[in-house]
DNA sequence: ACCTGAACACCGTTCAAGT
DNA sequence: ACCTGAACACCGTTCAAGT
């Protein structure tokens, strides 16, 4: 029957899910048992490097153990499963997003644009980490810290609390969807965009008149411009719900 | 070096990529060799049923072969790899989206909203198929047919061709991102939304004041409303670029 | 000529045997 | 007490041997 209903009462929480992260009391550092031979951070950093280099599909625990000069069994002294390692890896990517200077921005529009662009940048630096990242709401320690910072900055600039949360969610979903489709591992060549455009242009115009017409018009739009277009739609849409005036900047 | 750069010149195209679909001349039917014992459509339909029931991770070729009363080697007479099967499976899900009555809608806004809701509905019916779906731009026969229909309906209602293509892309990315985060297999319990909300609410208010405040306010917003909110942002944002007037309905 | 059992080289995970 | 080699039950894929 229902096979893929994780976090069912009684069952062990799925790694990366809210319930799973909630069971992990130590947000940072603090090895779990004694003093292990391998540093937890080092394992995750190595795993991320391997995923970057070889792709999430080719990444295996044997490969990771080899890179660490260790055996696969040793990894299980630090993590309960491969999925746990991937959950930490995803949170590590989110940790690369630097939102420390959000206070310097005058308007909530700028805050949302900065958040979107920097989140987008981190995902572009780790396209092979996108599939594991998409599979979960990012509620690890770094994901929570980013969410807190952005919501705080929005509230500070007079955005109503309900709107702030919805804006964060909507823009987050857009960034994830955009990156998945345009920079996922299946399309992760540097020239993915022109490739896709020329694919559309070469279709039979009789069978696909509208697609080929659009492709002929939209010849070589840089991806970053396409990204900005959708982002602007969301932000201008939000302006109908929220004040346009920037809050007085606190000292 | 560059490990995950598919569709490189000379290399075989990655299943599901534009280049791969372009090599598949027969959009529908027509078995490839003689008269095979297994129907291609039947294989894909069975594969989708198994993915629905057991999840994409548990789905294996042995499981598929068993369900078909056959052996794994037989599957390779119809498809070159598991990825090929998944690419067809994804296109089959897109084939469930019914856009045949788009002509009855008066405005381009309604066209985009209908497309988003029906695409969203198909993904919700197959949450376990979302991970393979996200990994690729959907350019299989069914994906192309949907794209053509929507673009045609938008052009018919006076939307400029460049804007139509960008609107389709932006809304498609939003739907994909929303579904991945809210209905992916990791969070695919029926009560995922309240679960996530209560997770936020139980966080330490000292460490995460903005998150807990937002969670307390946004108690139990139905997911469909959250979906509509982001969609409305995009559509109202688009209205600044396009005419508001519906085109005269053709007979 | 078409099909497929059985093998191949892997995989994540476990555990008994080592130190 | 801690670590880990070697095994376990799988996996996607191949191919020689069957009909």
UniProtKB/TrEMBL annotation, chains A, B:
Keyword vocabulary terms for this entry: DNA-binding, Repressor, Transcription, Transcription regulation
Entry GO MF terms: DNA-binding transcription factor activity; transcription cis-regulatory region binding
InterPro entries per UniProt: Homeodomain-like_sf, HTH-type_TetR-like_transc_reg, HTH_TetR, Repressor_TetR_C, Tet_transcr_reg_TetR, Tet_transcr_reg_TetR-rel_C_sf
Highest taxon in the source lineage: Bacteria
Disordered: region residues: 1-37
Alphabetical list of PROSITE patterns matching this protein: HTH_TETR_2
Annotated Gene3D superfamilies: Tetracycline Repressor, domain 2 (1.10.357.10)
Occurrences of domain HTH tetR-type (ranges): 37-97
BP-aspect Gene Ontology terms: negative regulation of DNA-templated transcription; response to antibiotic
PANTHER family on file: HTH-TYPE TRANSCRIPTIONAL REGULATOR RUTR (PTHR30055), TRANSCRIPTIONAL REGULATORY PROTEIN (PTHR30055:SF151)
Name the UniProt record assigns to this protein: TetR family transcriptional regulator
Organism of this sequence: Streptomyces inusitatus
């Amino acid at each position: 029957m229902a096979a893929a209903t994780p976090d069912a009462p009684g069952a062990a929480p799925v790694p990366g899910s809210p319930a799973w992260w909630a069971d992990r009391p130590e947000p940072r550092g603090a090895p779990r048992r004694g003093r292990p031979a391998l540093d937890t951070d080092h394992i995750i950093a190595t795993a991320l490097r391997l995923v970057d280099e070889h792709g999430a599909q080719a990444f295996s625990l044997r490969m990771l153990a080899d890179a660490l000069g260790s055996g696969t069994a040793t990894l299980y002294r630090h993590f309960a499963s491969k999925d746990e390692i991937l959950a930490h890896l995803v949170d590590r990517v989110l940790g690369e997003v630097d939102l420390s200077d959000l206070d310097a921005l005058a308007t909530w529009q700028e805050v949302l644009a900065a958040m979107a662009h920097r989140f987008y940048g981190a995902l572009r630096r780790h396209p092979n980490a996108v599939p594991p990242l998409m599979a979960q709401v990012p509620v690890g320690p770094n994901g929570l810290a980013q969410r807190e910072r952005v919501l705080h900055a929005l509230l500070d600039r007079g955005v109503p609390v309900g709107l702030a949360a919805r804006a964060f969610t909507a823009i987050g979903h857009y960034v994830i969807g955009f990156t998945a489709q345009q920079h996922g591992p299946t399309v992760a060549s540097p020239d993915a965009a022109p490739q896709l455009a020329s694919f559309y242009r070469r279709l039979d115009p009789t069978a696909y008149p509208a697609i080929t017409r659009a492709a002929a018009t939209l010849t070589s739009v840089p991806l970053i411009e396409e990204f900005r277009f959708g982002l602007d739609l969301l932000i201008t849409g939000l302006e109908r719900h929220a004040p346009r005036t920037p809050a007085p900047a606190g000292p």
